[in-house]
Amino acid sequence: MTVSIRQVGPCFAGEVDGIDMTKPLTQSDIEAIHAGMDAYAVLVFHNQDIDDAQQLAFTESLGELEHSIGAGLRKPDEYRLPTQFADVSNLDKENKVYGREDRRRLFAIGNRLWHSDSSFKPVPSKYSLLHARAVPSTGGNTEFADMRTAYEALDNQTKAEIEDMICAHSQIFSRKSVGFELFDEEERIRMAPVRQRLVRTHPSTGRKSLFLSSHAGEIEGVPQPEAMLLLKDLTEHATQREFVYSHKWRLHDLVMWDNRRTMHRARPFPEHEPRDMRRTTVVGDGPTAEQIAA
After folding, report:
1. Rounded Cα gap, residues 226 and 234, in angstroms
2. How far apart are CA 128 and CA 290, in angstroms?
3. Is 11 exposed, middle or buried (0-12, 13-18, 19+ CB in 10 A)?
4. Strands 194-197 and 127-134
5. I want to staple 245 with a disulfide (CB 3.0 to 4.6 A). Which of 13, 113, 204, 211 is the partner?
6. What would the 3-class secondary structure string for 161-194 be?
7. 55 with 25: CB under 8 angstroms?
């Protein structure tokens, strides 16, 4: 079946037909998906009733897997899924919904902040692939912001000002911004800040984009109040409605996005209902602070 993509967002995001993830991808399928990601940055695949092994096989067809170790507050004996998955559900190891005051839940709801996956790692991720195994009765949408179009809409003075800026990213920054500070010493060491460029150039298309995230909490060489106000202003600019696509999840949807040129956030849903979302991730291109801007 021929792969076709229909744009569903205001300036990006495409809905894909012609892919069956229960079967191995052909080389032409792989090329079409990469080309679709270059063009749309977010791709939506409906009706993909797949298991963990099939999701892993689909992801590995597109690139090297990133393992999810130490990215949250689940201890190793609390993992619900293999480390090839990022478990962004609200479920514990026994598939029970977290209690409202559970520390792991309070950390995880930080995903409602605008962010880019793994920007808090020295090598941030390339693609994220999120599969819906259980969806709540209402809410729980995921919103995406197109950081390419947002960058291009900036005035030239701002573009010149931010061109070579380096930010420090950490999950501690993002969680502190919503009042969560319940970190032990091991977690504080593990979540030490990493350096990332504020402006990135996509290796395939050559388009520049903002590399923003709630994990960004400092800008090198910029006084802290000024840095935080600049990051806040840029985030407000980049998440205007004309740059945002909101995905309403259906059971068995798989959505993949390019973290190098999008931000995203989860939206609230009934806290007592299960939301089982399983993310596989493709590793990125290398440390961004070492990448040339143009």
Report:
1. 12
2. 22
3. middle
4. unpaired
5. 13
6. HHCCCEEEECHHHHHHCCCCCCCCHHHHHHCCCE
7. no
DSSP state letter for 146: E
The one-letter amino acid at 186? E
- What value does the mean pLDDT take over residues 76-102? 95
pLDDT, tens digit, for every residue of 58-75?
999 999 999 987 788 998
Residue 236: its H or E element:
helix 224-238
Amino acid at 87: D
- Which domains does the chain carry? 4-290 (3.60.130.10)
Q: Max Cα separation, the chain?
A: 55
Q: Residue 142: enclosing H or E segment and its boundaries?
A: strand 142-146
CA distance 260 to 212: 9
- The length of the chain, given as a count of residues: 294
Distance CA 131, CA 244 (A): 20
Ranking 50-54, 76-80, 122-126, 195-199 by mean pLDDT, the lowest is 76-80
Residue 122 pLDDT > 90, yes or no?
Answer: yes
Residue 294 pLDDT level (bands cut at 50, 70, 90)? very low
Give the amino acid at 47: N
Q: For 205-262, write each residue's pLDDT tens digit.
A: 999 999 999 999 999 999 999 999 999 999 999 999 999 999 999 999 999 999 999 9
Which is it for the CA torsion 194, 169, 248, 32, positive or negative?
negative
Query: H-helix or E-strand containing 257?
Result: strand 254-258
87 touches 80 (CB < 8 A): yes
Q: In which region does residue 181 sit, left (phi positive, over 0), alpha (psi from -120 to 50) or beta (all else)?
A: alpha
- What average pLDDT does the chain have? 96
